[in-house]
Amino acid sequence: MSAKSRAVGSVLNAYLSSRPLKHGLFTVGRILRGGRRRAQVYYRADDPYSHLLAQVAPRLTSTYGIEIEIVPIASPGAAANPAPEMLRDYAIRDATLLAERYGLSFPSAVTPPSEDRVRRAHAVLLERRPAERQLRVAVELGEAVWRDDGQALAAVVERYGSVSGEEVRRALEANYAALERAGHYQPGMLNYGGDWYWGVDRLHHLEQRLEREGLRGGFDLDPGPSPTQASMIQTPAEGPHRLEVFISFRSPYSYLAIAQLMELRNRHGIEVAVRPVLPMVMRGLPVPTAKRLYIAHDSKREADRLGIPFGHVCDPLGEGIGHCMAVFFHCAAGKGLELEFPASVMRGIWSEARDVGHRPDLLFLAQRAGIGEADVSRAIADASWKESAKANRAALTELGLWGVPALRIGSYATWGQDRIPAIESEIARVSQPT
């Protein structure tokens, strides 16, 4: 195992194992400070996930007594958000579906709001007022901004007041700096006791934590069916369904997706085409430390929820990634092992601390997936996999997506292992006899 892989893995393993202790220390500190539960929602008026989260936040206050502060922030920089236009356009489509599934408000067929309206909304939210009122103001502003309703926005400004225009940029940048000091990098996040919850997708983890703290409740945020999503998926008239998944061997979310897709394939007989791409940092895109730590922590709690082994990590960056890509394209793609090899090798990376840059570890993981030593040797001696990886990256970009895992079935493309259950529900729906 290389010194760098060992060091990175040690940091992640220590970080993951420290979370229970940190939760306990937070609880002690909260009790010593009087017991009041507080959280922050880091918000941008042009972020769809922020608007959905703002709508749900009052339920957390009424159900659990959490005082929630809305903190407007500046836009993340390129290191935290390397594809801002793609993320913006995808988030609008995704928020439309999420709103429908969760019974929230978000208009369909919207365009990104103008900078002027976003700035005016932030100017209102930067004016100090009681937390519960601020939540109501944020929801009203979000409705006006996303519905492109200038009259409604002007009415909110008139009713609640705002800070001067000169103050907005400086205050937003200061708030973003506070977000970075707290350990994160993007809007649409709720912070409670040092843990982060992105949008509505992670609030079930917050509820579980509050239950561990002795609270009982439930704020009625169970997802329902999404007919809009069904209309976006066009399945072939004949033949088996085919699902494409773009992954990175360095992505823990890809590991979680592969484990779920193996079960989905077995249940529905669907064809799954795996398309690996290089990690962002190997394409010259920096990944901030806060982002890497959040992803590791979030993947761990999602893995625990799904019953997937996770937490004994060895970073595969560098030669290890090249080995994984070479063996995949030479020995797994088109040979009935497109899921089996990634499942074995990523389990080794993310739960067994196997160093895929170290030949004995690579051989063990490949053989576990049914690939022999001679085939592995021939694969890693051939660098032609780089062209295949480049083609996969181009195909991912053509879908309007940038991160992994990304999934496509029919005409519907989505991002994140969180959307696999929705895809499965659609596969089951269209498979029913008419």
How many angstroms separate the termini?
55 Å
Question: How many domains in all?
Answer: 2
How would you name the CATH homologous superfamily of the largest domain? Glutaredoxin
The quaternary state of the protein chains shown equals single chain
Low-confidence stretches: 226-240
- Counting DSSP H or I runs of 4 or more residues, the number of helices is 17
Mean pLDDT: 90
Topology:
Blueprint: H1 3-32, E1 38-43, H2 48-64, E2 67-72, H3 84-102, H4 115-125, H5 131-146, H6 150-160, H7 165-182, E3 189-192, E4 195-198, H8 203-212, H9 227-232, E5 242-247, H10 252-268, E6 271-276, H11 289-306, H12 319-332, H13 340-351, H14 359-368, H15 373-380, H16 385-398, E7 406-409, E8 412-415, H17 420-431
Parallel strand pairs: 1-2, 5-6
Antiparallel strand pairs: 1-3, 3-4, 5-7, 7-8
Helix pairs in contact: 1-11, 2-5, 4-5, 4-6, 4-7, 5-6, 10-13, 10-17, 12-15, 12-16, 13-14
Written overview of the protein:
This protein has 17 helices and eight strands. Residues 226-240 have low confidence and may be disordered. The strands form two sheets. It has a four-stranded mixed beta sheet, sandwiched between helices. Strands 6-5-7-8 form a four-stranded mixed beta sheet, sandwiched between helices. Strand 1, helix 2 (48-64) and strand 2 form a beta-alpha-beta unit. The chain is globular, with a radius of gyration of 23 Å. The protein has two domains: 19-212, Glutaredoxin (3-Layer(aba) Sandwich); 227-431, Glutaredoxin. It has helices at 3-32, 48-64, 84-102, 115-125, 131-146, 150-160, 165-182, 203-212, 227-232, 252-268, 289-306, 319-332, 340-351, 359-368, 373-380, 385-398, 420-431; strands at 38-43, 67-72, 189-192, 195-198, 242-247, 271-276, 406-409, 412-415. The protein is an alpha/beta fold and 434 residues long.
